[in-house]
Design brief:
heterodimer; A: 202 residues; alpha+beta; Immunoglobulin-like; three-stranded antiparallel beta sheet; 13% helix; B: 309 residues; six-stranded mixed beta sheet; 3 helices; 20 strands; elongated
Chain lengths: 202, 309
Amino acid sequence: MSKTTNALIALGVVAGLGAAALPLSSYAADDTPKAVGVTLTIDDELTIEADKDNADNKVDLSADGHTGAVKVTVVSNNTKGYNLALKGSAATNPTSLTSGEDQIVATKGTFAAPAAFGTDESEWGYSVANTNANNTTDLTKFAGGVYAGVPATDQIIVNANKPTVSAGDTTTITFAANLVDGQAAGTYEGEVTFTASNNPNA
Amino acid sequence: MNKTKTLLSAIVVSVLAVLGAVLLPSSSAFADESSVDYRLSITPTQKSFGTIKPGETYSDKFKVKNTGREPFDFSISFAPYNVEGQEYTANYDKATKYNDIADWLSVDIEHGTVAAGDETEITYSFTVPEGTHGGAQLGTIMITMNDSNDKTDGGVETVRRLGYLVFGNVDGEITTTAKILENKIPSFIFTPPISATSLVENTGNVYTAATYTLQVFPLFSDEEVYTNEEEPDKNIIFPETKRFYTASWEGAPSLGIFRVRQTVKIFDEVSTVEKLVFLCPIWFLFIIVLIIFVAIFWIVSRIRGRNKE
C-alpha cells in the first residue's frame, strides 16, 4: 500500500473517531436530566342527594309505629370536610307537623340531649345515624329510641373533617311521631331542609 | 361424524354468543351517570377574597350542576356564616358584626332551572360600603333545589340546599393578635399515626391561616424521616374563635422511638414543642413489662438462694 493510501486511511480513521466522539462529548457536556413540572388543578365540589328523591321526596309516617327515614348523601372533595344541617322550614309552624289548625309539636329533646317522647301531647322528632369515622359530632346519644325536636334554625348533625369517599357519606335521619289519644284526624305535613357546606379551607 | 359436526357447531355458536355478549355494548355502559332523580352540586364551594376595601366591588362565579336524571328549579338566598366550638361547626343563622356581607351580596340569576346533566354559571358580587368597619366578613350563598317531586299529601317533605362560603377582611382598623393555647405531643402511641394536637385562638378581628409543621426524627439522627415543612398543614382561623387541630404522619411504622417536633404559627405567635415518642403496640409493651418482671423475679430468687447457702 502506498504511503498516500496509508495516510488517507489514517485520516479516515481519525475523522471517524472524531465524528463518533463529537456527539458523545456534546451529550456528556449536557446530560443533566431536566425536570418538567406538571400541574393539575381540581376545584372543590359539593353534592347533595336524598334517597327519597326517586319516588317522592316525602317521608311517610302513616304506617304503624309512625316512623320513616331518609338517607341524605353528601359528596365532598374538600380536604377539610363538610357540615350537614337540618331545620324545620315549613312556611307556618316550621317545627311542627300541621293539619289545618291541628299540630303535632316538636318533642322536647334536643340534638345535644335527645330524649324519649313525652306523653302529655302528640310529638314528633328525629334521630341521626352516620358511621363516618371522620365525623366529629356525637351521634351515640341517639341509641335507644330517643329523639330530638326539629328546630327552626339550622342544627349541624354531621361535621366531617376529611373529604368523603367518592360514593359519598350517607347520613340516615329517622323521623318518628308519638300520638296520644284524641289527636285530631287529618293529613299532617311538615318540611325539613337539609343544608350542606364545605368547611372553610385556607 | 354427524355427532362430531353437531358438537363442533354447538361449540362455535356458544363461543360466538359469549363473544357477542362481551363485545356488544351493555345497557349499563349507556346508563345514566346518576341513579338518583334529583342531585344538586356546586363547584367551587368557597372563596376567600383576602383584603377587601370600602367602596370597592368584588365578584366571582360558581356553577350549579344537575348531576341527577330530572331537571330541577333552584333559588338563591344569602345567609351569615359563623363557626362554633373548637371543631368549627357551621352556623348559618347567628348574625354578628362579621356577617354584614350577607346583606351586600347579589347574584345575576336568583331563580332558574337546570336540565339533567347540565349546569348554570352564577356570577355573584358585593360592594363594601364606604365607612365599613375593618375586620372579617363571612357569608353564605344558599342554593336551594326546588324539585317538583311532590306527589302526595302529608308526610315530611325534604328539601336540599348547598352553601357557598364567601369571606374577606375589610381594610381599616384591624387587629392581628392570637394565642396558641395548646401544643401537645403524646409520649406513648399504641397505634399509628404519629400525631400532635394544638389549640389556637384568634383574638384579632380578621381571619388568617394558622400553619402546623410536623417533623419526625429517628432517636439518634437529625435526618427527618417525615416532614411537611415544605407544605405545612393550614387552617383558616376566624376572629374570636378557637380551633383545635391534629397534625399527623399517617405513614408511621408500628414500632419505634422518635423525636417529634411540632411548630404552630398564627399571626406573630409561634410555638414549638419537641418530644420523645414511643410508638409500639400495647401487646408489645405488655411483653416488655412481663420480661422485666420475670427478670426481677429471677434475680431476687438467685439472691435469696445464695443467702440460704
